[in-house]
Design goal:
This protein is α/β, with parallel strands linked by helices and 370 residues long. The protein has three domains: 88 residues, OB fold (Dihydrolipoamide Acetyltransferase, E2P), CATH 2.40.50.140; 164 residues, P-loop containing nucleotide triphosphate hydrolases (Rossmann fold), CATH 3.40.50; 51 residues, Ribonucleotide Reductase Protein R1, domain 1. 38% of the residues lie in helices and 19% in strands. The protein is built from 14 helices and 13 strands. A six-stranded mixed β-sheet has the order 10-9-8-11-13-12, with helices on one face. Strands 1-2-3-5-4 form a five-stranded mixed barrel. Strands 6-7 form a two-stranded antiparallel ribbon. It binds guanosine-5'-triphosphate (GTP) and zinc ion. The site of zinc ion has 8 residues, from helix 11.
Amino acid sequence: MELEDIGWNEEFAAEFKPFAKKGWVPARLVRDNKIAYGALLAGPKELEVVMSGKVYHDATSDAELPAVGDWVALEVGVGGDDNDNMIRARLSRQTCFSRKLPGKSSEEQVMAANVNVVVVMTDAGSDYNPRRMERYFMLIERSRAKAVVLVNKSDLFPDDLNTSAKEEIEELNAEADVYITSAAKNEGLGVLKQYLKKGVSITIVGSSGVGKSTLVNQLLGDEWQWVSDVNELTGKGRHTTTARELLVLDEGGILIDNPGIREVQMWTDENTLRESFLDIDAIASRCKFHDCKHASDKGCAINAAVESGELSIERYESYLKLEDEIEELNKRRKKRQMITERRAKRDNRIKARNLADRIDYDNNQKPENY
Ligand SMILES: Nc1nc2c(ncn2[C@@H]2O[C@H](COP(=O)(O)OP(=O)(O)OP(=O)(O)O)[C@@H](O)[C@H]2O)c(=O)[nH]1
Ligand SMILES: [Zn+2]
């Protein structure tokens, strides 16, 4: 395995020159364990690494800390205890797939660095939501990666439905490549070959249950050939490598899949939910009473629409559940935000765990006029 196989290129090499003079080596981060990172080096070799106090302190926000997919300059074998591989610098990101955390408008969370292609999975059925698709496109455009959309589960829907979803998505974003696929039946996936080339990093996003894992399994093949040469070297079996968030596919291409990306599927909000019921809102505006609960209220336009067949009963029921769903969503988000903040505080403390860093860190924690 060469560095090029895992995404190294001329720009990275140019930026790395001064670091090479110090005896540091390039590595790509394949895992973020919070306490330590996993890094893949030429060889191939996989090492546990920690970030230096300088890298930690120079980061003015969490988004600037090393993330999965980043290229770093590594000092191998300093000290002698378990902290002996140190991230000395992070190279500039050529792309950066990130999201703004809900509630903290300025806080950015990096899901993966240096991703070249983001594959969005949806289907032509209940998952299909043009507003959500637009928001994915927004994230991808900001990341500077290429957008590829799979209208999956094509085996479950009529051809014309699949085609109209595809065409509508193409209208939303002329830059995106859109394909109809069935991950379960391994149909139409061949189009991904054009992206899965040596050194190209891709990641997959989409709602829960849309087929992401099924696609990953198809790409990896039945034998789950995770960077087999690395495995031979480290003696790590398939179960120990599942924690790795960056995989080199045998046929070429690098797959990045981590919890941050997985969670993007929950990244929906009140507005998106409400927008998906705009048609029903329009009907509701015809209700006789302004505060109509659309249950058995007199003069309810929604009830009338259900009776006349203009509105399906299923859609009516999900509309009634909307308010509950929004409340649930907001509760979940608040909880997640609290956990994230608490965890971030703890992790930052742990990351600065070697002694010098720790002293540095503690000094910085003191008030200015201490
Ligand atoms: N009919 C059909 N079923 C599919 C297809 N792709 C996936 N499925 C099924 O849909 C279900 C969910 O698929 P997953 O691959 O686990 O979905 P996921 O996106 O990874 O879901 P999360 O792990 O929750 O994010 C499974 O039962 C799959 O077998 C498809 O193309 N056609
Ligand atoms: Zn009503």
